[in-house]
Amino acid sequence: MEGKSTKLTTWIGLGVLCVAIVVVAQVARNTDNHTKENLPLNQIKTNTMNNETKQEDTIFPRGDKAPNAVFTGDVYVNMLIPDTDGVYNTQAYNVEFEPGARTFWHSHPGGQLLLVTEGVGYYQEEGKPARRLTKGDVVEIPINVKHWHGAAPDSHFTHIGMSTRVDTGPAEWLGEVTDEEYNAI
Amino acid sequence: MEGKSTKLTTWIGLGVLCVAIVVVAQVARNTDNHTKENLPLNQIKTNTMNNETKQEDTIFPRGDKAPNAVFTGDVYVNMLIPDTDGVYNTQAYNVEFEPGARTFWHSHPGGQLLLVTEGVGYYQEEGKPARRLTKGDVVEIPINVKHWHGAAPDSHFTHIGMSTRVDTGPAEWLGEVTDEEYNAI
Lengths: 185, 185
Known about the structure:
The structure is a homodimer. The first copy, chain A, is α+β, with helices and mostly antiparallel strands. Helix content of chain A is 33%, strand content 32%. In chain A, strands 1, 3, 4, 7, 8, 9, 10 and 11 form an 8-stranded antiparallel sheet that branches. The radius of gyration of chain A is 32 Å and the shape is elongated. The model of chain A is unreliable at 27-55 (pLDDT under 50). At the A-B interface, helix 1, strand 7 and strand 11 of A face helix 1, strand 7 and strand 11 of B.
């Protein structure tokens, strides 16, 4: 009986040992899972931060929503160089177009220059095929040429614009680019 | 003796239990460390990829190395709007400065505008403290004001530049920004 008692105690000890090992392993695994669970969160946070940084990373702040009297869709204009005193005879501004957004048809008595910084968009002169624009493209818009510019249907589009020879007068606005015209590009 | 033997077995069991707990905990910890070691590597890879993307992500192509007659260090100029025919009376260009690179002192009879797109740099008018510039900053350089612009010692720097009222004549170059002047910013 004593031998049995000893064996019983040993088996109980081993049983407790096994239970303890399973419990400890489970706790360790949970700790591990906890780390793993945090991991994607950290990554998401980092990605979010990257995205936020990217949002902030747009070169110029978005500026104010432009009036729908001369724009279709949501367009944001940040006047960088208002040239109020006419020192430079040039205005410069950052323009962000939401997908599908665009200017009305218009022309400039002093011409206009576009430097594309982000996204995909179009520039079209009346009677000509639309020109597809991406980052790094440069557009020289001749004096008094009727045209429009804006985003592709499925992409944001940002350009720096410059109105040159501002002393010749303001842009002339010539009516909206209809959906038919826009969808035909 | 039998009671002692039982107690001895129990104590041995508990001893083995403790050793087992320590071993299992250590194995779990090592697995955890392994995960942690991989983590920074993943992050480094991601960061490197982001940096590579950023490099390719420059808005405008780098252009040609500018002459050291009017620049210190390596500077690359891409003339975006040469305005050869004088239609716009404005030239626009992309300028990339390597760290420490800078223009000579100079002035513009028609003024100049800078739109900072990348990196960290400085703009200084003669007799004034240098202004630190980062992405999104805008500089209006008055007519005939002696100044320089360029990169910080430890950063690349890129801006779009516009020479306005080009018909007033070319920039006047007024000698290099000495290391003493540059190091004093």
